[in-house]
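Our collaborator T.R. sent over the components below with a one-line note: 'Predict the complex.' Nothing else. No constraints on interfaces, no templates requested, no preferences about which chain binds where. So this is a plain run: every listed entity goes in together, and whatever single assembly comes back becomes the starting point for the next discussion.
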Amino acid sequence: MNNNKIKVAFFDAKEYDIASFNKANTENEFEFRFFETRLNAETVRLAEGFDVVCVFVNDDVNKEVIDQLAAYGIRLLALRCAGYNNVDIEYAYKKIHVVRVPAYSPYAVAEHAIALLLTSIRRIHKSYIRTRDFNFSLSGLTGFDLHGKTIGVVGTGKIGKVFINICRGFGMHVIAYDKFPDEDSGIEYVELEEIWKRSDIISFHCPLTNETRHMVNRDTIRKMKPGVVIINTSRGALIDAESLLDGIKERKIGAACLDVYEEESDYFFNDRSGHIMDDEVLARLISMPNVIVTSHQAFLTAEALSNIAATTLSNIHELLETGRCANELCYRCPDFSTCEKTHIKKCF
Ligand code: NAI
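Returned assembly:
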């Protein structure tokens, strides 16, 4: 390896990561090594000798991994994603810097949520298969208009706001809940109870936290309208999947559009077509005619990949050059995006 270059080890690297990062390395400042395997306690030894480790949503950066990375003298963990629930941020404090890509294309995720919704309620997934088999029957394909329906949006950050604008374009009535509402946004905020009670469709765009884990559960499903459509492009564990499945079996839930699943790390992003599916809940959900599952695909647009690569490399450059980075995560800041120290004095 050329020692003048910043050596970055990528874990869980896919062909689209390799292409976008190689393209973004315009100055040839970085030397990349792409590992297909995920980062965890068993694979962390691969990181030895690198300056930076770059991970994605399903790499498991727990205490043991952090200790080992620190022991190898690795100063920086660069997340090539926005969510960071897979990293023990608190434990990382004073051991390794953690940076992320807070925004890369809210449009990618919001548009995917809409694609899932339209596919589901207009039965496109069914008609696509029928017409390929020259079956032109319309039987069982009746959908419903989005116009005039009430959509409840949970989380009105970057993605939630784009999603709301698209919904308004369809003539939907938007109500929203956010723990930190943006009062100047013109969004009609209501309490969560109202979201459950009034929404024909509910879409989740909030992070996974202790507070939001399993916010869709037996109890909250009971409060929802019969026939409610649930969209989750955020994090799987926002929904208790067994309760969701029961809600579908009981015909309470009209449809579910899922880009994420609580136990996705064992399956998503990989071709498992030749394997027996061990996860009974996922298998049953996928078997339902009114459930659409995509494999954590919402982020996957050319624009998003290009922005992810550019921001990740600029985060690495900035932190290694200056010792600070606006996109650094630090558990001590109540809201990472509004760090009081703005990382100028550095939290550590
Ligand atoms: P953001 O940080 O801009 O917005 C999140 C919003 O959720 C904020 O307004 C925040 O106040 C709100 N929030 C925080 N705690 C809450 C709570 N307890 N209840 C309700 N709202 C709460 O994040 P952004 O970029 O809009 O992303 C949202 C989520 O989308 C991410 O957390 C991530 O999990 C997910 N995501 C999924 C992707 C995919 O490919 N499926 C790609 C990118 C993000």
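Summary for T.R.: The radius of gyration is 21 Å.
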